């Protein structure tokens, strides 16, 4: 069973603070694994290593990126979390978790970096895939497919999670509005 979402640590910048990033280490690793995988993919010919070593190193970086985004960055930077469970009937159940209202506000800089990189990563890998196709470099196209699948899975998971969080907020607002309206109407009788 997943842990609960973290709240801000003592001594951390104020939630929603515009002066600084609330989670600079999470932002660094969010960018590092993505940039390292793309950099090594583009320049691996300069290192003089064979395809198998390049494949393993880039795949390792892609998996580290997937894990970091899914399990650390999303929780800290935007207060969202998703996972997928296989039900007893064999179906796939998406589970979503978001911060409850009042736990902490999401830092706008953190959120901007997170969502920008989340959307940009599959696009960058698709461009690299197109280049691999044009160069008839089918071996490295496999790496691009892995990168697109992992980054698209995170993107899809967080988009669904964000929509679920928004609908949860709307549901709470509608419930409060309806109960207030009911109390107003029946309280005046």
Describe, in plain words, how this protein is organized in 3D.
This protein has four helices and two strands. It is mainly alpha-helical. The protein has one domain. Strands 1-2 form a two-stranded antiparallel ribbon. A hairpin with a 5-residue loop joins strand 1 and strand 2 (92-98). Helix 1 (24-43) packs antiparallel against helix 2 and helix 1 packs parallel to helix 3 (108-134). The protein is globular, with a radius of gyration of 21 Å.
List keywords for this structure.
about 190 residues; mainly alpha; two-stranded antiparallel sheet; 2 strands; golgi apparatus; membrane; Golgi apparatus membrane protein TVP23; transmembrane; transmembrane helix
Question: What's the helix and strand layout?
Answer:
Layout: H1 24-43, H2 51-78, E1 80-86, E2 92-98, H3 108-134, H4 138-187
Antiparallel strand pairs: 1-2
Helix pairs in contact: 1-2, 1-3, 2-4, 3-4
Function: Golgi membrane protein involved in vesicular trafficking.
Pfam families: DUF846
Membrane topology: Multi-pass membrane protein
Number of helical elements: 4
The domain count comes to: 1
Helix percentage range: 55-70%
Characterize the biggest β-sheet. Answer: 2 strands, antiparallel
What is the straight-line distance between the termini? 48 Å
Low-confidence stretches: 7-17
Structural class: mainly alpha
The spatial strand order of the largest sheet comes to 1-2
Quick structural overview:
The protein is mostly helical. The chain contains 4 helices and 2 strands. A hairpin with a 5-residue loop joins strand 1 (80-86) and strand 2.
